[in-house]
Amino acid sequence: MTAESTVASPAGPQRVPQGAVSVLAPRGQAAGRRGTAGRGPRRPHRTSRARRASRTSLCLVDGGAALLGALALPAPHRYPLVVALLGLGVLWLNRRASLYDTSAATGVLDELPAVCGRIAVGWAVVAALSPLRSLPPALLAAAVAVHCAAACAGRTAVHGLRRRALRRRPCPALVVGPLAAARRVSAALLRQPDCEVRPVGIVADDPEVLGEADDELGLPVLTTALEARRALIQNGVGTVLVVGAATRVEKAAVLRALAAHGCALWELDADPPSYGLAGHRPESGHLAGFSRRLLRPEGGRRRGSAGKRALDVVLSGALLVLAAPVLLVCALVLRVTDGPGVVFRQERVGKDGRPFTMLKLRTHRPASAHEAATRWSVANEQDMSRFCHFLRRTSLDELLQLWNVFRGDMSLVGPRPERPYFVAEFSQAHPGYPARHRMRTGITGLAQIQGLRGDTSIEDRCRYDNAYIDNWSLWQDVCILLRTAAQFVRPTGS
Questions:
Q1: Residue 215 lies in a domain
Q2: Global model pTM greater than 0.70
């Protein structure tokens, strides 16, 4: 089950027959020269190869600039090891700052502060830890200036060549999102022939009957992953434009498939910001006036996600060992007082809308599977035993979810997972709710330490969950875990 299947659609989609799907041939290429079907799938990788070539060129430029900077020093102070460490250090700093990301053809002025700042940091560290510290500051400043000038000149040449190549042959793109917004974005891009991107199709869930706007744009509306993949192969698509934040969750499976073919994924803001405020979201420039941000689904993981997963594995494993005696005692008491079946299994919706089976100690026996899936809360159920009330009040019934964390279904910290029935309801009632599934769900979270547990406002929970994801850091996870530990014994369960 994906996010698309858990969110009910207001009306059934009108599918376009697959045989009627057409795609545009790349500019300057006749339909008869499209090539055989056997060679088609290699086309999307042409853009990837061009990006890799630009990335390699930028690395060579930065390495050569470091060498030129070292040559500006007096001959006795040109230590090969120092030069090598300087070059590798600057390359590492630039990589950490995504200065080798060639998904977009940027200008050297845009990255000038970042490039020169990291060169200065590299020289400062090398000068402090090597014999260069005995040199006069003027000589070091001159070497830094030569290094910066060479790096900027080389990057200007590389970016200029890439921009000229994209102007001669714009990168074919698919626009993914609600049909009206995707049409508006596509029309704006087609009116800007120098924006280096050319839409070749629109991927939408529920296209209406094509009207004059579609005839004018001449773009096919694709409704299935198969049609999108066919358009990608036939047009050599290298860029996917995702319109709206909710689309990246609702179309997560399609976007992962497109990214696997080497496409760069960009999120576009088709609508102006509320109240004219830009917010804190880090942007990556604009495309034809639309703010854009590079997306990295699946393979392009969120920075720090490896640390988050390591924290989950270490802590959940340790806590499982420590909590094993407690779990055993609770399971034995439940077996004696309530009979067999002490483990409660329930389907929940996790990251990117993928379902998983969440584990808890059983504190209530639903009358049917339908009740278990659709009843909101049983926290005050009268027929629950005193021990079950105790388990829910102290959240000891949640300890089994440590196994979900250890397996990778959940995280220690993240938005609480919900049942598919309620995911569908809440997604329709609260526009930001599907965006909670951008990150792995958790045992506790920012909303929970604010007291938003049990029968509390879904809108408030949604707001806190998205704020947590947008401002995520490993230290924030540690703080939430510490605050959760301090509130472990509380009067309400989840």
A1: yes
A2: no
